[in-house]
Amino acid sequence: MDEGTTATRVCTRCGQTKGETSEFFGESRGRLRTVCRTCNRLQDAEYKRKNADKIVEQRRRTADATRLRSHRWYVNNKEKHRACVKAWHALHPGAQTEIARKWRETNREQEQQRAVRTRALSPLIGRQRTAKSKAKAKGVVVANVDYQALLLQYGSTCYLCGKTIQGYELSFDHIIPFDKGGAHIPENVRPVHALCNSKKNTKLILPSVP
């Protein structure tokens, strides 16, 4: 080959002769592919078109498996996770706020739906956090309590006075107070009037209907 002449290669798919460089032929394991980049892109696009459902399912399974591995790691390494998060925030002050802002800008519709759900559940979410904190401080059993499920189960009737609870009057009471060893579990929580709850305070008053 004459000096200064560029080596060429024939694409096995389209038959065109192109420069034998990575500009025209992609690399695999340190070697140039036999199919040119243009044909490779067309081949990928054709595969994706014919196997769209299969690709979506594969991505879903991969995402589910990744979330499961991440959750298992987190459960077994909570302290390490907290330390990593703390170190990352120390190295990148304000970065999390910026990431959240960019996500909201590019996902406005999802953000609006999330905001609607949060506003609807915010009183219950806040109540859950407050009750959990108090229960942990008292050293009693703590579990997740689904307040919406309790409303569906017991209705909007105050278990202390038996009258209907209006939306602004709604509160939830632990039948057996924390001070008397009551736990923060669904079986120990009932809907009540906020005023009835305040009057009861830490007294033990069992419901007439279990």
Mean pLDDT: 86
Q: Helical segment tally?
A: 7
Structural class: alpha+beta
Major sheet characteristics: 2 strands, antiparallel
* Residues in helices, as a percent range: 40-55%
CATH architecture of one domain: Orthogonal Bundle
Output the strand order for the largest sheet. 1-2
Question: In what range is the share of β-strand residues?
Answer: 5-15%
Order of helices and strands: EEEEHHHHHHEEH
Distance linking N and C termini: 95 Å
Tell me the overall shape.
elongated
- What is the CATH top level name of one domain? Mainly Alpha
What is the number of strand segments?
6
Uncertain runs are none
CATH topology of one domain: DNA Binding (I), subunit A
The value of Rg in angstroms is: 31 Å
Describe the structure in your own words.
- There is one protein chain.
- The chain is of the alpha+beta class and 210 residues long.
- Among the domains are: 8-50, no CATH class; 123-200, DNA Binding (I), subunit A, CATH 1.10.30.
- The protein starts with 7 loop residues before the first strand and ends in a 10-residue tail after the last helix.
- It has 7 helices and 6 strands.
